[in-house]
Amino acid sequence: MVVLSFVGLFLLVAFGIDVNAYKSYSQHQLWRLNVTTDEQVKGLTDLRRKAYEFNINFWSEDIRINIPVDVSIGPKSIRDLHEYLSLNKINYDVIMKDIGSMIDGQKLLHQFRPSNLIANDFAYDKYHPLDEIHSWIDTMVQTYPSLATSFIVGQSYENRTIKGLKISSNKQVMKRDGTPINKKKAVWWDGGIHSREWISPATNIYIAYSLLSNYGKDATITHFVDQFDYYILPVFNVDGYVYTWTKDRLWRKTRSKTSNPRCFGADPNRNWDYHWCEAGASRDPCDETYCGSKAFSEVETAQVAQFISDHGDTIVHYINFHSYSQYWMSPWGYTTTKPAQFKLQDDGSAVAVQALGAVFGTKYVHGSIATVVYVSSGSSADWTYGKVNITFSYGVELRDTGKYGFLLPEDQIIPSGQETLAGELALLRYIEEHVYEKDF
């Protein structure tokens, strides 16, 4: 018999929290659960809805048969979760025995490890807090004045600036046959929509720097900087990202107030006004996938959406970078039904994945969001495609596949940037052929 709740297994523990302290993950463990039956899926799905009450966090949003499910557990819940899994015949492996020591060790490495790639006083092989990233944007504008400008999307809930970098050359866009094109198309890439996914801002930053520093030196990069304008938002969820540096390394959501005074923020990738809060999203303010009180309730998603809409006549390619799992995905997320242009989109994913994998052998899976991972409504990629008609809209889950998860070490930043750049250049070639050379 499958046990579907923690009744009888857990006692709720009331404890005080120092709101000014950095959250400790000492003795927290990361387990990988091996799900083999529909009953186990149902039981874990029921558990997931209230897991936060027991200091349990599902790092994996997808719960399906034969798909690994990564779960972090506070020390007081380890024994009870083991008993629950044993009763339900769910096998598991311990991936990290002490998440806290992993976080602390990475902090020390960040402070004392010398950088191997510094330019303009910025270390590209290290993670950076928000103020350093915004200063980097200013430095790029100063260093490459003919190519780089900054742009402001708006202000966050906590009144932080949502700031991006635009890359654009003044060259006339030409078709391959030499025919001039009147209107240059644009690309949008963003990272850090989920604040704990530090590799996504770092990868965006590396790619942006590669485009700027290699313009006029590398023929392929020069070509694509001439062919497209680039709007790059390294950190989307600025409040949440600052919170991961100052209070809780594994915080995911925004930082807005909710109807529950104990719980803050919404999932900014469930808050978009396209099939908002249907399957794959929660109405519980304490849940990690809380969709918000309404579509675009979060000022960050509303302002990014407005900015993209204002430039929707030029933007033809969108990527929302995440971690982790190594997936390159296209719409739809809200349903497993494929859109009419799925083959066109997925063929682009295949091109990107092949080029990415050729660099270091990193394996990515591609397909639609709902079929590759899970059904998730109200996502950015669905909205950009469904509402703004950005055909080449994608959600990309970067490294790794679970060994480190959201705590990807800094020595993987440069490799992630190099292989993702290779994938993007191949995808841009594919998009160029369809946007400038063909009707679609």
TrEMBL record:
One of its GO terms (biological process) is proteolysis. Its cofactor is Zn(2+). SMART domains: Zn_pept. Involved in the digestion of the blood meal. Extracellular metalloprotease that contributes to pathogenicity. Keywords: Carboxypeptidase, Disulfide bond, Hydrolase, Metal-binding, Metalloprotease, Protease, Secreted, Signal, Virulence, Zinc, Zymogen. GO terms for cellular component: extracellular space. Belongs to the peptidase M14 family. Residues 126-431 form the Peptidase M14 domain. This is Peptidase M14 domain-containing protein. InterPro entries: M14A-like_propep, M14A_act_pep, Peptidase_M14. It comes from the Eukaryota. It is found in: Secreted. Residues 1-21 form the signal peptide. The lineage of its organism: Eukaryota, Metazoa, Spiralia, Gnathifera, Rotifera. It comes from Adineta ricciae. GO terms for molecular function: metallocarboxypeptidase activity; zinc ion binding. The active site is at E397 (proton donor/acceptor).
